[in-house]
Amino acid sequence: MIGAIEAGGTKFCCALASDRNTILASASFPTTSPTETLSRVRSFFQEAQLKHGTLQSLGLACFGPVGLDSNSHDFGHILNTPKSGWAHYPIVEALRTSLGVPVAFDTDVNGAALGEFHCGAGRGHSSLVYITVGTGIGGGAIIDGKILHGLIHPEMGHMQVPRHPDDNYRGHCPSHGDCLEGLACGPALGDRWNMAAETLTGDHPAWDIQADYLSSMCINLTAVLSPETIILGGGVMQYPGLLDKTRTRFLERFNNYLPLHERLGSLDSYIQSPELSNQAGTVGALLLAESARPESVSR
Ligand code: ADP
Ligand code: ZN
């Protein structure tokens, strides 16, 4: 058995599976204090193991920022999160001790990127970027088959994008104001227009501005990373027509600078929706767990 945890700032989703495609038990609960949340994690896995068999390893796709550098003292810790009680929490060690199995971990969006890469919309490619546009904006990249970490890990939501000429909104990011996340996450839409993103009508000017910011993001990702595909997930991307608007604006603004069409045939396969929808993080965490199985580590 392998285990997966998608640890989000709002909720923890746990799963026990016999392989990446076969989830046998799952549960989710709200993220409260580390002690309470981890005690629920422990209860879930204890109960699930009694029914289905012993856990060999665990994969964790975790909200961040998180310490991923194994040579650093903060490896396996959640870093400077505003989430009460979680800053500097050594989550990997806590899980390893509590469940008694090896733990492989990465950021939540890197986990989702890994899931889409092996089992979803990224199959058959050697690189991709996965972005979620939801309560925040986050992104993970797989380049030449490997998750991109670099110095810490990418924080794609905090890239700077040119301001739309009709937009005076100050921005929602507590650190940067009008970074991409500050201008285009779900709560920024709600705050700017005084109504929840999902209730804005299709002809509202919000969506042209939103597509403008997301197309800037796709241009930046294309120019910097040259991924074979960009996968846009998260609650805001469920708005009907937003993905198409983003593609159209991307095309207009990038001005055919790269011969994308020659390579891809269609822009629909370059900027696309996830295939695993809200399961990407869990599947990614299962893939991480497979890599931490005792027999794969010693191989
Ligand atoms: P999280 O990022 O917390 O995991 P989601 O990806 O579901 O959660 O994103 C939640 C955000 O998405 C909220 O700000 C919400 O207003 C927005 N949202 C959810 N559904 C839609 C929709 N159909 N159209 C536009 N925005 C939506
Ligand atoms: Zn920011």
TrEMBL record:
Catalysis performed (reactions): D-fructose + ATP = D-fructose 6-phosphate + ADP + H(+)
Signal peptide: none
EC number from the UniProt entry: 2.7.1.4
Pfam families linked: ROK (PF00480)
Keyword Transport in record: no
Keyword Ion transport: no
Cofactor or coenzyme needed: Mg(2+)
Domain of life: Bacteria
Alphabetic keyword roster: ATP-binding, Carbohydrate metabolism, Kinase, Magnesium, Metal-binding, Nucleotide-binding, Transferase, Zinc
Gene Ontology MF terms in the entry: ATP binding; fructokinase activity; metal ion binding
Family classification: Belongs to the ROK (NagC/XylR) family.
Protein name, as recorded: fructokinase
